[in-house]
Design brief:
There is one protein chain. Helices cover 19% and strands 32% of the residues. The chain contains eight helices and 23 strands. The strands form five sheets. Strands 1, 2, 3, 4, 5, 6, 7, 8, 11, 13, 15 and 21 form a twelve-stranded mixed beta sheet that branches. A five-stranded mixed beta sheet has the order 9-23-22-18-19, with no helix packed on it. Strand 22 and strand 23 form a beta hairpin. The radius of gyration is 20 Å and the shape is globular.
Length: 335
């Protein structure tokens, strides 16, 4: 299943899914609208799940068969045409617009080495001891579209090319050997970074703060694990995935990596995050930045003679195999 959250005509949020039509065009099924028009009998008491992705995830086991029935009806042409929308006509939000929390990992060695080099410090040996993460602002989540950024955050504005998971069921002290069972789905993540602010505050050794908390983009789709079964690279410490990751600045390719290069798996990050702590459905965890997946790294290597940063009105896009293309346009905020 490829889930989405879309903005309806009355500006409310609806849970839906992406489906390919017989013509090959990408289309969106609005589950709320299907229920409203009697397109399929919803399990009783679950109406609240149709407008809140976190609630959908909590009730996914009860909703799965209903959602599959709806998609099968759509593919067979059995749903009224007004319930099926062209993706180009829809306003997609972050698949999980209101996550319970948002952690971001630090799982790619190449990025960690480059980040530390940029701060004038050597690679830290503890990287190999345990996966680390920080909490970012789960109330500043965006999806595709425009992002309004204040002047100070526009000083050396950077992208970070990542993949994020969403926790699908409650768990505590989850071993890495079983942690993949707790993943509801995968999506693209852009951990926007204001490098000037970040450079200043990192000198105080407290981790990212204002340099990160103004925006994190997710989307456009949330893919369930079965959609990636043929991309799995299994191991005893959790699955890796052979997914090509790309970034484009105003249409120009600027970064290329692969999710399989994570030095720590999502399962290991879940094990660490859940130690002595309960994880809940709807929590988001990012992979951290793939190697070369930000200008901070590229400006130290291939672009060192002419550093590049993101400016107002620039269009920035991230692509990951199967997960789609996440496009954002940067705008200068007035206040």
């Amino acid at each position: 299943m490829q889930y989405v959250t879309l903005l309806s005509s009355d500006r409310s949020e609806h849970v839906g899914a992406r489906v390919a039509s017989s013509s090959g065009a990408n289309q969106i099924i609005d589950f709320f609208e299907v229920h409203q028009h009697g397109g399929s009998a919803l399990p009783p008491g679950l109406e609240h799940s149709l407008s809140n992705m976190v609630e959908w995830i909590k009730n996914a086991a009860q909703l799965k068969d209903w959602a599959n029935t709806v998609l099968n009806q759509a593919q067979k042409g059995l749903l009224p045409s007004q319930l099926i929308k062209n993706e180009s006509d829809c306003i997609l939000l972050a698949p999980v617009p209101h996550p319970v929390s948002c952690r971001d990992g630090y799982a790619f060695r190449q990025h960690v080495e480059a980040a530390r080099k940029g701060r004038g410090v050597p690679m830290i040996p503890e990287f190999d001891d345990f996966p680390v993460f920080y909490f970012t602002n789960h109330l500043a989540i965006t999806g595709p579209g425009e992002i309004y950024v204040m002047d100070k955050a526009l000083e050396r504005l950077d992208f970070e090319l990542e993949v994020a998971i969403v926790i699908g069921k409650e768990g505590r002290n989850i071993p890495a050997s079983r942690a993949d069972e707790y993943i509801f789905g995968y999506m693209i993540m852009n951990d926007w970074s204001a490098r000037e602010l970040q450079t200043q505050e990192m000198k105080l050794n407290l981790g990212p703060a204002k340099g990160k908390d103004f925006a994190t983009s997710l989307g456009p789709y949330l893919l369930t694990p079965d959609e990636l079964s043929d991309k799995i690279i299994p191991s005893s410490v959790g699955n890796r995935y052979d997914l090509t990751m790309k970034a484009f600045h105003n249409g120009t390719p600027v970064s290329l990596g692969n999710l399989k290069d994570m030095n720590w798996t999502f399962a290991q990050i879940i094990e660490r995050a859940s130690y002595g702590v309960t994880l809940y459905p709807g929590e988001v965890i990012g992979s951290g930045t793939v190697g070369t997946g930000c200008y901070m790294e590229l400006n130290l290597t291939s672009l060192k003679d002419q550093p590049v940063w993101i400016k107002p009105n620039d269009l920035f896009a991230l692509e990951v195999d199967r997960l789609g293309r996440l496009e954002n346009t940067i705008r200068r905020a007035n206040s």
